[in-house]
Amino acid sequence: MKSFRLIVHQKNFSAEDLIINSKDYPGASLGDVVEIYHPPPEDDNPRSKKKSEPEEEYPRLLLQVKAFPDDSTQQIALQKDTISVEQSIAQTFGLQPYKNVIIRIVDPPDVALDSIELTFKDQYMGRSEMWRLKNSLINTCVYIKKNIEFCGGAVRCQVYEMWSLGDRVACGVITEDTKVVFRSSTSMVYLFLQMSSEMWDFDIYGDLYFEKAVNGFLADLFMKWKKNGSNHEVTIVLFSRTFYEASSLEVFPLHMRECLQKDYRGRYYEDFYRVAVQNERYDDWSGILVQLRRIFSEYLKIVLEYHKRPGIDIPAATNSTAAQGNFLEVLNMSLNVFEKHYLDRSFDRTGQLSVVVTPGVGVFEVDRELTNITKQRIIDNGVGSDLVCVGEQPLHAVPLLKFHNKDTHLNVPDDYSMPHWINLSFYSTNKKIAYSNFIPRIKLPPHLPSDDEKKESPKNKLVPQDDYIHNSFFDYDAYDAQIFQLPHAHTVHENSSVNHHRVLPRYKRTSGSLLDSHELIKGQRRKMSDPDVPHRIDSNARSEPIAIPPAAVSPIISPHADEKELSPPVRMVVGSEGSPPLESRALINPFDPSHVTIKLTSNRRRWTHIFPKGPTGVLIQQHHYQAIPAQSDLPATEDGSNPKLDRMISSGSNHSFSATSALHDYCKKRPNSQTNNHSVPTAPKNPSKSLTFLWGATGEQEWTPALTTAVNDVLIVALIGVDWKSLTIPACLPITTDYFPEKRALQIDYVVSLYSLLPDSVNADFAQLRSTSKRPLTTVEVFKELISQRLAQGFQLILMANNADKIGINVLNPKMRASVVRTSVTESDESYYLSIGRLFHKISLSGNTISVTRYRPRHPYPGFNYQYRYRFHAPHHDTYEESYASFTTEKLEHFNWNYLDHYVCTGGDTEFVLVDALKYWRFRVYLLPLNNTANKKIIDGAEHCDIYTAATPTDHQQMVDGLLKFIETAVNKIKRTLPSKKTRNTTARSNERYNAPTFRSGSKVMERNRTSQSSESQSSSESQSHDSYPDENTIQSGPCLKNAATNPEIVEAMKNPLSGLMFICAQQNLPCSTFIAADAINWLMLRMEGVTTVEKAVQIMQSLHSENLIRHASGDPNKPFLFGFFLFYIIDKDDKDSFQPCGDFQIFENEWLEVEVKSALNWGLSVVSTGLDVPNTYCDRKYGVPHFLCEDINVEYAEIDSVIYKRMRLETDVASKSDRVEWGHVRYQTTFMPDQAYELIVEWLTSSGSIVAELLSSWHRKAQTCGLQMIPIPHDPLALPYSNKSDPLRGPIFVPLNIKCLEERDRIFKEFKDNTYLERLFLLQEAIVQRFGFINCMLEPPNNPDATSREHQYVHCTGTVFVLISRPAVKPRSRVPSVGSKNRSTGRFSVHADVVPSPHEAYITRHVSGKNKDDYDNSRKMGFLWSWNHMVSRRWRTNQGVDNNFQTKLLKDFREFCGNVNDRLRVFWEESWVTKENASTSTDNYLRK
Question: Which of 130, 950, 1266, 1473 is such that its CA lies 20 to 30 A from the CA of 421?
Answer without folding.
Answer: 130
